[in-house]
Amino acid sequence: MPDAPANAVPAIDYVGVGFAYPRPVAGGDGAAVEALRDITLRVEPGERLGILGPNGAGKTTLMRITLGLLPCQRGAVRIFGRTPEQARRERLIGYVPQRSDAELAFPISVRQTVELGPAGRLTGFARLSIDDRRRVEDSMSLLGIADLAERPVGKLSGGQLQRTLIARALAVGARVLLLDEPTVGIDVTGQRRFADLLTSLRDRLGVTIVVVSHDLRTIAAASDRVACLSRTLHSHVAPEGLTPAVLAEVFRHDVEGVFGEVHVDAHPAADCDDPAHHHHHHNHDHAKGGGGA
Amino acid sequence: MKTLEYLFGSPELRETFWPPVMVGLLVGALCSALSVPVVLKRMAFVGQGVSHAAFGGVGVALALGMVAGWAAQGTGLLAVVTLFCVAAALGIAWLSDRPGARTDTAIGIVLAASMAVGFLLIRAVAGRMREAGLPPPPGVESILFGSVLNVGPADAVLAAVVATGVLAVVWWYRRPMLFWAFDEGASAAFGVPSRAMRSLLLIVLALAIVVTMRLAGVVLATALLVLPGAAALELSDRLRPVYAIALAVGVLGVALGLVLSFEMNWQPGPSIVLALTAMFAAARVCSTIRARRTAAQERPA
User: Fold this and answer.
1) Could you say which residues of chain A have pLDDT below 50?
2) Which of A28, B2, B27, B122 is deepest in the core (most CB within 10 A)?
3) Contacts of B200 in chain A (CB under 8 A)
4) B183: distance to nearest CA of chain A, Å?
5) DSSP 8-class letter at A121
6) Which strands form A208-213's sheet, in the order they lie side by side?
7) Nearest-CA residue of chain A relative to B239?
């Protein structure tokens, strides 16, 4: 899957996506609050993309648009050629929320949690299909939590809980995994293990992985390619390209994004021919070759 | 044993005491099933707001009845109170859905305002009805704390219909409801209509409160919507046992409370709440002892 031909349908295709919140936020001047501007980005099937951005950069908005929970006010998003709403119906995206979101005092076991992925929408007499049932078991074994299946989620370690939430996302048969701040509260060793886990999932299932985080180390360890987000996309680089110079540029944009007008055209790294971007433009095939190990 | 005499004695006694017992057991089962999500979603205070709205609802129903020229009793009163409660529930849901909203403030205001409106209207209507020589409306105390003598066969039928309907709806939506309750943030991404699930839970809460208030009163209806679930969660961290224990606690608590009320000649509402509180305390003691024992076993290893 990592070697998908260039003309394949992209896993996610953002074309000029823009979004503004109509309601003024506290302390705002009453005008609509622009959260995203002109996001153009192509996520290839089987790639591990990191979206790096500080708090308030629009990460959550971009995720909610991708999941079909917010409308795309400007531009368009396609997931394997489908609209986000269709993609949700066809269960193309598996969402892994921040671990702190779930109600951990809940009397629910690991298996019941994973089953909610495919079963959460079922009502009345509907039952899980045989395929879904098999996927629930397969996802648990793949993530090494099969022996914890009957354990209540409140008694899991942080890493085990995260594996449970990833299994829940995979149990719907998703082709894209979307992870929201996956390493909050995980130490450095845990982060490295987590990056290895994502790599093995990509290699074994061919699943496309998008990690959204404000944490530079997480993004660097878990991605083949990095997109820096601060209202708009600022740069696309291989993780090795996240040099102090590049970060300084991102932070400069971040600062100017708050205080003044800054507009940097965002291009997929592969066809970025703006000379100004060349100093951080690394060959991205090289990164992919390294990531699959 | 007055209980046996009331339930199996003369036909008159049986006619008076079987309806509240039936309503009590049905309401116990209904509320305990809802108490699990209420406790887990920390909605106990929401229930408090909705149940106190019922008091305002009674006042409005009586006033409307007087204006329209009919004595607001039975079905008409119940319909208005139900509408009032459902509106209050949805109002609370709407207020708490906005970013940065303070749910507790909204509930506090709804609660206090409907108590004030209810109290004034009920007093005014009672005065006018006394002047007109009509039978008095239900007293404030019986609305607040419930009364066995308020409960007739029609209430038993109504409780049965509401309990069956609500439990069927909750069973039908059990999986989206579970997903929403467990992980509200992620559930929408998996296609669960999470906003609808919140509204649904609030509506069935309002219905449960309306059928409970005749027996246990407005103030005490929430106890039935909190204590069984809270006790069950002390004793188990598995889904089916939690629901089974909550159901047992709810039904047993009502039965025990009614026996207490018959034997000691206490009001049924407070008696039921005391019985449920005692059961919760027992569950708490059990779970504390068990936790100590587990800790002691783990220490030497």
Assistant:
1) 1-4, 254-293
2) B27
3) none
4) 5
5) T
6) A93-96, A176-180, A208-213, A48-52, A225-230, A232-237
7) A107
